[in-house]
Specification:
The chain is an alpha/beta fold and 492 residues long. The protein has 17 helices and 22 strands. Helices cover 32% and strands 21% of the residues. Bound molecules: 2'-monophosphoadenosine-5'-diphosphate. 2'-monophosphoadenosine-5'-diphosphate (ATR) is lined by residues 354-359, 377-379, 382, 413-416.
Length: 492
């Protein structure tokens, strides 16, 4: 189940947000602590207006909410509002028994007993914004033993913490109903793969109501998180940071289009070694690799291709024949848009700006196709080292102007000109003749200053967005054995 967390100041606004997201979710959580005080009296009527099951939550400040009342006063209001037809009421695990005894005129009501008598399930919640408690499994079991639905929202700080959360599925299999959430950037994969953590639901919101929460639309339409089953094949991308990656937008729609029961998820990874453990546990069938792990994965690979050997970095790992195989689709993704020009002899010489990791893939790809390469770089020694390895020429980027109009292809591989520094020109001093092809690996913005200048001079241009898509399509082939569906054009 996907649950929409509603944190607007008025009931009317909460209903508006719900309307926008209704088709993505099967229940909603009304956050009483976010409502204006004058709205609270109408909150008990919310489930009727909402027309779907509702969780009632009155979150205190220490648990990430806005309520700063004492527990006694808070429970008093919660009891009054919970007289409405809610399906679940959230009560924190450490609320004292005596605070759950509610005084009403001449009698005292036991909130828990009263909720149970009316068939309202109690969600017993535990929050940790700093980490993952050492006795997590024990605490979940204890909460479940009271007959309630345990909810733990913890904050993993490493891949090892993430593994602990995923282990709940197997370790506490007998507790059928539970809610498990990993918050923050490390926890995003646990929110998407909530079913693989043994969680009965995952929260989503329009405004990231809790750290790491995704929108309901993304959870439902991009990830199809609620359609994950034990049979779903898990793929992903590892990096640090990783959440900005556009790869899920390439692979998830692709899987869906070929009717492959699979999901592609971003995993923030500190230790590659720990990630390979998770890959065995889940299991994971293949993954993309981004900065800073393109070299770090090499020791774990049973097989690598010639390109990975040459470039010394791997951006795609697939599990085949009981081992991890590493390939480099950046290499082919770069070649794809210009291959016809290489084959027909229009590209015989190239100038490559930059001598970092991305440049290595470009230079090797060109050299393996007999293109004459000159590498220019800010730090000449870096250009020299790559030139030696690949039998290329090299120079300082300060001399770029001298190469104006002398090559068939100019490739820009540095981060210069990338957002938010999109005014910077990576090829200052170089004058385009209009005959050469200009290729920028930067994909944000789509048209860099470098590409704009080339276009204005009449050059043919290739943007980094195209290369990104091409390398993604090749990854898709490596993952699935199918071509990427031709009718899909993800916005990247
Ligand atoms: P990547 O893996 O994306 O290629 P990298 O390995 O850090 O990243 O390489 C970055 C490349 O961009 C290098 O060629 C770097 O030049 P140095 O070798 O002199 O560091 C180049 N680069 C980065 N910032 C630059 C800047 N502000 N001006 C010029 N070149 C820059």
């Amino acid at each position: 189940m996907l649950c929409l967390t509603l944190t607007e100041p008025t009931i009317a606004k909460d209903l508006e947000v719900l309307e926008r997201n209704r088709r993505y979710v099967s229940l909603a959580e009304l956050r009483l602590d976010c409502l204006l005080p004058e709205e609270i009296k109408d909150a008990s009527g919310f489930p009727k207006k909402a027309g779907l099951p509702v969780i009632l939550t009155f979150r205190r400040t220490s648990d990430g909410g806005k309520c700063s009342l004492t527990d006694k006063a808070r429970m008093d209001i919660l009891a009054a509002v919970s007289e409405g037809p809610f399906s679940y009421v959230d009560i924190e695990e450490d609320v004292k028994k005596r605070d759950l005894k509610i005084k009403r005129e001449d009698r005292t009501i036991d909130l828990e007993a009263s909720l149970k008598a009316r068939g309202i399930r109690i969600i017993r919640s535990l929050h940790d914004f700093e980490g993952v408690p050492a006795d997590l499994f024990g605490r979940i079991s204890k909460m479940a033993a009271r007959g309630d639905i345990p909810k733990v929202a913890v904050t993993p700080q490493s891949m090892l913490d993430v593994i602990t959360i995923f282990r709940i599925h197997d370790e506490l299999r007998e507790i059928k109903e539970k809610i498990i959430i990993g918050m923050g950037p490390w926890g995003v994969c646990t929110r998407i793969l909530y079913k693989r953590c043994g969680s009965m639901l995952s929260f989503c919101s329009d405004n990231e109501a809790a750290p790491g929460q995704l929108s309901a639309q993304k959870m439902k339409e991009l990830y199809r998180a609620d359609a994950v089953t034990d049979q779903t094949h898990v793929y992903g991308v590892i990096g640090n940071p990783v959440l900005q990656t556009k790869s899920p937008e390439i692979h998830n729609p692709g899987f869906h289009a070929i009717h492959y029961n699979a999901i592609y998820v971003p995993f923030q990874v500190d230790s590659v070694r720990a990630f390979f453990k998770l890959a065995e546990l889940l299991p994971i069938y293949g993954f993309s690799v981004t900065i800073p792990h393109k070299r770090n994965v090499l020791p774990y690979l049973g097989r690598i291709t010639r390109e990975v050997k040459q470039i010394g970095s791997c951006n795609t790992v697939v599990h085949i024949q009981n081992m991890w195989k590493g390939i480099n689709t950046d290499y082919y993704g770069f070649l794809e848009p210009i291959m016809t020009w290489i084959s027909d002899g229009s590209i015989k010489s190239a100038l490559v700006i930059g001598a970092g990791g991305a440049s290595r893939a470009v230079v090797w790809a060109l050299r393996n196709h007999d293109v004459k390469v000159t590498i220019v770089n800010r730090t000449v020694e870096h250009a020299q080292a790559l030139a030696m390895e690949t039998m290329s020429a090299f120079d300082s980027v300060d001399h770029l102007g001298a190469y104006s109009g002398t090559v068939d292809l100019v490739v820009q591989t540095t981060s210069v000109g990338m957002e938010p520094h999109s005014q910077d020109d990576a090829a200052k001093g170089y004058l385009f003749s209009g005959k050469e092809i200009a290729f920028d690996l930067v994909y944000k913005p789509r048209e860099t200053v470098f590409l704009r200048r080339a276009k204005e001079a009449g050059c043919r241009t290739v943007s980094g967005a195209l290369m990104l898509f091409e390398q993604g399509k090749l990854q898709f082939e490596a993952f699935t054995g199918y071509h990427y569906p031709g009718n899909l054009h993800p916005v990247i």
